[in-house]
Amino acid sequence: VGEYPGLEVHGVVGNFLEHLDGIPEGSDRLVLFLGGTIGNLPLRPQARDFLRSLDEAMDPGDWLLLGTDLIKPVDRVESAYNDGAGVTASFNLNILDVVNRQFAADFAPPLFRHLAFYNEVDHRIEMWLVSTVPQRIVVQTAELELELEPGDGIRTEISTKYDRPRVEELLDDTGFDLVHWYTDPEELFALSLARRR
After folding, report:
1. How far is residue 161 CA from its own chain's centroid?
2. What are the residues facing 178 on neighbouring strands?
3. Is the pLDDT of residue 1 over 60?
4. Strand 124-131 vs strand 112-119: parallel, antiparallel, or unpaired?
5. I want to staple 140 with a disulfide (CB 3.0 to 4.6 A). Which of 4, 65, 80, 104 is the partner?
């Protein structure tokens, strides 16, 4: 703050899909939505709905700095989600342990395998947990029973990849104008500075 004496920073702790009313009033505000988090929302309708909600929480002339993960060669992105050390697979399978604890479920993680692939139609990585045997799972808290056959999958994550035209279209459809486009030298990631109309 010493270098920017008029700057006020206000963090919002909450679910970005539900707590946009926590954005404080003010003039000439800048909202940051960084990382590739927008990519974890399906483009239609969730990503658009989120940005429309953000648009409603902002005033004309306010700024948005949006981070996006850019489209990369398929082999490069698939190898990142199917790393040789098995880090992503362990992360994915851990979801079952979390569901077991939080929702009184009886998933057996060793009976699933990690699967990640690039969906070229939707420009996104999809992560799945695929059953390796016939099994019946009970999720007590949700009053849910699952009957799975070998090869049946549970999608656990998506990570949508963007390019500049897709970002511009998304921003334009939700009330923002792209002002500046920043990328790293390899054009793996982007920051879009946009202004609310």
Report:
1. 10
2. 194
3. no
4. antiparallel
5. 104
